[in-house]
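Bug #77: duplicate submission created two jobs. Keeping one. Sequence:
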Amino acid sequence: MKIAFHGLNIPEGKIKYDDPVVAELTAKFEPKKVSPYFFEFFPDDFERADAIVISAETILDLLILDLEKLENRIDRLSGDSPDAPLLERCVEFLEAEKPLCDMDFSDQERPIIAELAPLSLKPTLLVDEDDPDDLTDLIKKIMDKAEVMFFYTAGKPEVHAWFVPKGSDIVTCAGKIHSDLARGFIKGEVMGYEGYRDAHNLNDARSKGLTRLVDRDYIVREGEVIEIRFNV
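Kept job's structure:
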């Protein structure tokens, strides 16, 4: 995930997320390989970012770019354009120093705004303090704002954190691991990572009734460890 920051003292570059679940699973399995997730932080380049974190004191530096874009669009609309009231509402929202990601849109309105690609429609987190001292907490807040999460695969060969939107079904998650798992999906086996505290391995977890078999429409929950049964 690419995160632009502005008005904040944040390390630049790829930052490993200090994931407590990865730490716990690694301690449990002592795997040959550990694959945590890395976030990429860079200053000011809002265009290429997936999400934005910005100090409340400098929020207008971002919002003014959207205001200019929307006001130019309004100026080019005909007087009876059905889009005009929506764009004017957006301008009022921005003038109140609030990013558009916090504005409520109907299912019909969102594609109209998304087509204009305003920067603050991206998940935008405002931070009050000038220097956020806990990067792990900041990343978690950004993830919550962007409605993304981790699920995990775990075992002796590898512990791996996988990054997906919240609400992803298990076939989507399987495809994140490998396209063959999604293509040949038969069943998923899921368990909260906490289950491994009471189990030595996956077979032990099964015998203790800690895992569940699920079908392709199952929505994976944040923090779950999954195993995919497939055939291709």
